[in-house]
Amino acid sequence: xxxxxxxxxxxxxxxxxxxxxxxxxxxxxxxxxxxxxxxxxxxxxxxxxxxxxxxxxxxxxxxxxxxxxxxxxxxxxxxxxxxxxxxxxxxxxxxxxxxxxxxxxxxxxxxxxxxxxxxxxxxxxxxxxxxxxxxxxxxxxxxxxxxxxxxxxxxxxxxxxxxxxxxxxxxxxxxxxxxxxxxxxxxxxxxxxxxxxxxxxxxxxxxxxxxxxxxxxxxxxxxxxxxxxxxxxxxxxxxxxxxxxxxxxxxxxxxxxxxxxxxxxxxxxxxxxxxxxxxxxxxxxxxxxxxxxxxxxxxxxxxxxxxxxxxxxxxxxxxxxxxx
Amino acid sequence: xxxxxxxxxxxxxxxxxxxxxxxxxxxxxxxxxxxxxxxxxxxxxxxxxxxxxxxxxxxxxxxxxxxxxxxxxxxxxxxxxxxxxxxxxxxxxxxxxxxxxxxxxxxxxxxxxxxxxxxxxxxxxxxxxxxxxxxxxxxxxxxxxxxxxxxxxxxxxxxxxxxxxxxxxxxxxxxxxxxxxxxxxxxxxxxxxxxxxxxxxxxxxxxxxxxxxxxxxxxxxxxxxxxxxxxxxxxxxxxxxxxxxxxxxxxxxxx
Lengths: 324, 255
Fold this sequence. Notes:
CATH class of chain B: Alpha Beta
Structural class of chain A: mainly alpha
Radius of gyration of chain B: 26 Å
Distance between the termini of chain B: 96 Å
Number of domains of chain A: 2
Strand order of the largest sheet of chain B: 10-1-11
Number of strands of chain B: 11
Number of domains of chain B: 1
Number of helices of chain B: 7
Number of helices of chain A: 12
Number of strands of chain A: 1
Helix content of chain B: 10-25%
Oligomer: heterodimer
């Protein structure tokens, strides 16, 4: 499949954005579940910062995906077909998530200026839970756009859906770490951070290694004989219908990545899994460097995710290529 | 709405005879000609002339070499190698994924006759429908920024300004070998349905479950084996029947 940069940037950025919103929801829900009220103004400001950044990342991602449209001005129509289309569902969930985030930011603003009595803080965890659920639904819809396409066996693979969740959580975590590590954290907190970073990076790396191993050995599920209605016959291309490449060749037949798959996979693994672990280890060894190290780690981790997404597209073979 | 309508009684579609198709591309060219001014107009060429011509076509004709076989899933008897010409266009599937993935409702399947169409005023050009189609039926027009696809010449088949004999898709009209047939595949007694039954018409990629309405008639079985020309027979000459002069010549020359 042709890897359109706007779509790859969209899934990477919005994935990180929804991941960040998941972690933000966790940070808001955790004290509430333990029965504590927000400890101080700094915590509330952190919440606001995470929510704003999550909103910015997801919105930039969505606008980037609109660049891929032929008629971006009609994009509003894409909210209408949620009954059958995962793309439409994604749009609906994305807007609903954005509304939940805006509601939380409005509540935080109102509480800071004192427009509402302190009892209103109890609405915060409820909104966070709603946002958590909507973010999960949005990530799942994004993954299902690909996982529901029968002509592309590599995208039908059962690891595609968990893959999108793992990468959202990993990249969201990396962005979160790039933010919180600029303030001095306790050794205990840093220890937890190192452990979580290692765990997420290892899960993502294993998932991707298994996925790549499987799709390399996965048959296309049909032969050229099946495609022309002569199953079992050995069919070779004699003359193509067009002398130059057409839309089908350009969009569905993309061979560059399959040629360079190994080095690109190594680069992706290095950037999204090894680099964050090295960053965590460096921050553990030199806590005063945690801020810059994690920021660099997050940027490189996002770059690695971009490479991974590029491969996800470029390596996927579409059944229509059988005709060519 | 991109919800599929309940299965229609009438299922208009094409039956393409791979036995008689000679790969002349007349169907593709006449399709391009008609649709450049029809329902899906314009059928734009991004690059009509020059070194790398490219544009949108609803119909593309492939040619393949089919290797000889000793018998396989599609042919019980041994078959020699052959050339296969294969016109490829929208199959107007019963359960078209290109319609259900559409986020805007621009893609739809008509409840009355099962034709799959694009409402270009609603299409946002996200290309997802082309990803969902294993048959490569949908092509994106860079110029209009929307998706284009075969309309089964919906603007011909019901067109009362045309003579009744011309109310069929342009590709069917143009075919010089009558390899393309148009009709109602939902009616088991229609000419096309009988043709499919008689010739063992097949679905393309049935394992995907899109249930194409268009059917392809596989090439008829070819004769195989060594050339079995009869060995030259000894010529016999009844000399008794010859005139005396020739009988004498025969006797002299046979010596």
